[in-house]
Each structure stands twice: as C-alpha cells, then as structure tokens.
Specification:
Pfam families: GDPD. It comes from Paenibacillus solanacearum. One of its GO terms (molecular function) is phosphoric diester hydrolase activity. It is a single chain. The chain is of the alpha/beta class. It has a single domain, classed as TIM Barrel (Alpha-Beta Barrel), CATH 3.20.20.190. Helix 4 packs across helix 5. It contains 9 helices and 11 strands. The longest helix is centred in the last third of the chain and has 16 residues. The strands form 2 sheets. Strands 3, 4, 5, 6, 7, 8, 9, 10 and 11 form a 9-stranded mixed sheet that branches.
Amino acid sequence: MIITDRNGANQKVHWQAHQSTNAEMPENTLAAMRYAWELGGIPELDIRQTADGVIIGMHDATPKRTTNAPESEQDRLISECTFAQVQEWDAGIKFSEQYRGEKVPALAHILTELAQYPERELYLDFKKVDLEKMASLIKEYGVGRQIIFCHSNHENCKTVKRLAPEVRTMQWISDKEVDFKFQETLATGFDSLDIVQFHLVDAPTKEEWRYRLQRDFLREGLKHLNEAGLELEVLPFHFDQDSMFELLDMGIRRFAVDEPKVFVETIHRYFNDKQNG
C-alpha cells in the first residue's frame, strides 16, 4: 500500500489481514484473500494438512467454529479428514449469508491465483503441515518471493529458509513472552529471519499508552531490527486513531490487523493530516 506524502515522496505501509479474528470477512477463504489484496494488503492463510496430505486454509484443529460441518464431524481433527470431506463444508455461511458457498481452500488453489499477480503477497501461518511439502508446493507455483512464512517457533522459520531461501520468514512473539523470546532471537543475529512481529494487547486499565507492551521496548526492538536490515511488524488486536498514529510516528510501517477497511481509512487519515500540517 503506497501513499504519497506532502513532499511528493511515496510512503509504503505493509499490512497483513489477520485471519483468526478477522472482523470483516469469513476467515481463511478465497473471498478473504481477494478482499485483502484489493484493499492493498497481504492476506494471511493459516495452514493445516488433511489426512490425505492436502494443505488447506484452516486456523483451528477442528471445523466446529468456522464451518457448517455436521455435528458428527464438528470435533473431528482436520488431520483425520480427507480433502473431499473438507470440501463438503461451507466456510462462509457462519460469518454471513452473503458468503454462503465459500469453501475451505486448498493452498494450491490460493497459490494458483497468487501466481497470476506477481505484485501480490501472501502470509502463511504455520499450524500443522509438512514443511517440505509446503516448500515444494511454493516452488511448483514459482511464488517464493511472494510468500511470507510465519510462526512463533524460530526453528520452523530456519527450516523454511533452508528449504526455500526465497521465502521471507517472520517470527511472531506474544507480548507475554516478548522479553525473553526477543532476546533469544536477537542473540542469534536474527538467524534466517526477515521480519519479527510483536503482539500488542490492551493494558488492563486505560492509561496514556494503550498497550501492555511498553513504548520503550517497541522503540528498542525497532532499532535492533533496523540495524540488522530487518522489519518490525506489530499486531494491535485493538486500535483507535490515536494509538495507530503513535505507532506510525514511531516509524513502524508493517502491521497485522483484524479490521482491514478500518485500518486503511486510518492510514489515509494519518498521511492526510501530515500533508495538511
């Protein structure tokens, strides 16, 4: 997403359409992927594998929360279901009647579309798949430079970088673990990483600063990553104009958000305000 500032310079803001709590679209569907792309963002696909080895988009270990799977299958593990069984479920109707008929997509289906648009990108959030199979599929479709693989386990990121060096990797770190996990990652020189993501959760009481993770830690993390030539991404589970403007003022230019349309509107307001002084 590129916005021109008042000096005529292009300002690039990258954003991920977070799926598991997406407020605007039925998560992990082709409709959600297209929605994010059309808004100028990068969709995220949570990936799992079926019993017959097909990698699909599904956050949870079972279909109960997001599909209309019959009661007998609602608590069944995805890893125990065949892809044909998964395709019998509707992945859109629980979100809205408007999306009736949306299916749980195979990764191959998403990559087919991605390959047609070299300017588009896709996050793959590891849940439970064979990483060698995933890497082979990415190579088959020739989309490695368009993929960002993400997981909390640094070792999985290292594995993917070895299997598919052109794929960018991102380690996400929850705010409860960030103190020690970031230091561990920093000590490796950010081995095999391109991006590190911090989760921003609201503080229990309203204060001047909205989040539990403090400003100074964010600034320090951003400094370390900039010096290493890497990027910091933040996932604010909730934001308003003031909190988002402050994150942008810090120099953060990569985000993950649950409300893509609201985020884009906020970003435009930010740069319009800058242009108008």
